[in-house]
Amino acid sequence: MTPSPMKIHRHTVKTSGLAFVFILSALMAFTSLSTDIYLPAMPLMAKDLQADVELTITGFLIGFCIAQLIWGPISDHFGRRKPLFVGIALFIIGSAGCALSKDISQIVFWRVFQALGACTGPMLGRAMIRDLFSRTRAAQMLSTLMVIMAIAPIVGPLLGGQMIEMSSWRAIFWLLVVIGALMFMALNGLPETLPEEKRVKASFCGAVHNYYALLTNSRYMRFTLCLSAYYAAAYAFITDSPFVYISFFGVKPQYYGWLFALNIVGLMAMSMINRRLVQRHSLEWLLKCAVSGAAIAALVLAFGVKLQVGGIFLIAAAVLVFFSMNGVIAATSAAAALDAVPNIAGSASALMGALQYGSGIVSSLLLALMHDGTPWTMAWIIALFTVISAVIALTTKTDVGDD
């Protein structure tokens, strides 16, 4: 049965449960789509621009994490819909700027600009879920959305790989302009989930105080840092996998998407399983199991690459297990973190997103600075941050409460 919104304010736009889920899924997929679709083109872009194109991901993540800290308080004050419209408009402008860029500095600038808008999708999507659903139900809803939104990172690299066969990498960014325009129109079918009486009326100083309160909330920060460390590892793979598969192992760009899609299929499967598991087990217990499994896979990856055994098959298999665990990790950690601070869900989701995707800045910069032309740098970065995530999760106490 498809989850549907509950207790939506009477002045909001009416929509069916299916439409609500579809639009939220598309919003939450904006981040992955903005990067995954041009992954197969990165080696070609590096050759064309004569620069480290890993910086285009770094620039996007910088804009993404900073902007969320601003959009969070804005959404708590003005509601969720208005910031979404402005955000998607910025995304469209940034995508056009990327397509028209002449050098690496220009494209990094427009990637930052693109991120200023793209960040509103997943951040406000999570906040809207917390506006409407209880702790366990929110985890179920997030798992459902992850199944649907996983279409983007499957189709994105496949589509991007085919587009560079027929056109240039610039066409990929023009496609993002079109997608952004379609999303802007779809927002008209999205309800406002934060009624007037629940909106935060505090000033900017109040927003800063909210972030201070979040940073000093140990329970919220544990779940947020666990997710952030895992995403630092995930972005090491996202950033370097085109070079590992295409440049190192010689996989053709149009086939790279299939290797990348394999991981998303695993993520979708675990998300579907997680929808049932959250009804039987605590979020904390599921999170501990998932990050432990991801850590084991990451260590197998690192040792396999260091010892030069298994080749591309070991890398693909280990990353499949590692990435699949995101179907549990993202949903359970986000639901548990937001449950700790329900009254400022917008700011909480913003800070979570800033740290979650900001952690990718660390891994992408490490790859740009320390890449040695082999999979080793990617492998040890994945292992390091996944183990950190596991340690944080395993030292978190279980709370079986629900609201």
Topology:
Layout: H1 17-28, H2 30-36, H3 42-49, H4 54-78, H5 81-100, H6 104-118, H7 120-132, H8 135-149, H9 151-166, H10 170-186, H11 204-215, H12 218-248, H13 253-277, H14 283-306, H15 311-324, H16 326-339, H17 345-370, H18 376-394
Helix pairs in contact: 1-7, 1-8, 2-9, 4-6, 4-17, 5-6, 5-10, 7-8, 7-17, 8-13, 8-16, 9-13, 12-16, 12-17, 12-18, 13-15, 13-16, 14-15, 14-16, 14-18, 16-17
Pfam families: MFS_1
Family: Belongs to the major facilitator superfamily. Bcr/CmlA family.
Membrane topology: Multi-pass membrane protein
Based on the model shown, name its key terms.
403 residues, mainly alpha, Growth Hormone, Chain: A, 18 helices, globular
What is the total domain count?
A: 1
State mean pLDDT (0 to 100 scale).
83
Q: Class, according to the CATH hierarchy?
A: Mainly Alpha
CATH T-level fold name = Growth Hormone, Chain: A
Helix content: over 70%
By secondary-structure content and strand pairing, the structural class works out as mainly alpha
CATH architectural designation:
Up-down Bundle
Q: Tell me how many strands there are.
A: 0
Figure out the total of helices.
Answer: 18
Largest pleated sheet: none
**What is the N-to-C succession of helices and strands?**
HHHHHHHHHHHHHHHHHH
Give the overall shape, derived from the CA principal axes. Answer: globular
In terms of DSSP E residues, the strand content is: under 5%
- Which regions contain 5 or more consecutive residues with pLDDT less than 50? 1-16
- N/C terminus separation: 21 Å
Rg from alpha-carbon coordinates? 20 Å
